[in-house]
Design goal:
Layout lengths: L3 E3 L12 H5 L4 E2 L3 E5 L8 E3 L1 H6 L13 E5 L4 E6 L12 E7 L11 H4 L8 H4 L6 E6 L5 E6 L2
InterPro entries: Cupredoxin (IPR008972), Phytocyanin-like (IPR039391), Phytocyanin_dom (IPR003245)
GO biological process, one term: response to symbiotic fungus
Keywords: Copper, Disulfide bond, Electron transport, Glycoprotein, Membrane, Metal-binding, Signal, Transmembrane, Transmembrane helix, Transport
């Protein structure tokens, strides 16, 4: 289970706050959550790319989070950019946040080759070696970052 980061701490998601200073020194990992708290209707949260972040513009079709208590799970490593899309809140109110999400180091990385899927694991521990074989479920992430599940019997 990851950490919930309250964006802006006790100030929340608001105008004229230095979110870059807030993020500095924090380490965000896959499995953590960002929590954006603000008065409903006053702001929103848009996930954008680097260009959208620089220009305070969301790509067409971007869906705004606008509940006032928005939880954003960090599912993939890499840079993540968030802005407020209300009026000039991003451009003049400094309502923008960029973070880098690190891989979760608690679990081993999934195999990237199909050859690894057919590998056989040998174990000398009798408890494990004599265990009944069950369905093997593997969670894969494709190049687009979408999660999918592949189910196999082995």
């Amino acid at each position: 289970m990851g950490t919930d980061f309250m964006v802006g701490d006790d100030k929340g998601w608001t105008l004229n706050f230095d979110y870059q200073a807030w993020a500095e020194g924090k380490q965000f990992y896959v499995g953590d959550n960002l929590v954006f708290k603000y008065p409903e209707g006053a702001h929103d949260v848009l996930k954008v790319n680097g260009t959208g972040f620089q220009h305070c513009v969301a790509p067409a079709g971007t869906v705004a989070l606008a509940t006032g208590n928005d939880v954003v799970p960090l599912l993939m490593p890499g840079k993540k950019w968030y802005i407020c899309g209300i009026g000039n809140h991003c451009a003049t109110g400094n309502m923008k946040l960029v973070i880098t999400v690190l891989p979760n180091t608690e679990a081993p990385a999934p195999a990237k080759t199909s050859a690894a899927r057919g590998s056989i694991l040998f174990c000398r521990d009798p408890t494990v070696a004599n265990a009944r074989r069950t369905d093997l479920r593997k969670f894969l992430v494709d190049e687009s970052g979408e999660d999918e599940m592949e189910e196999r019997n082995e």
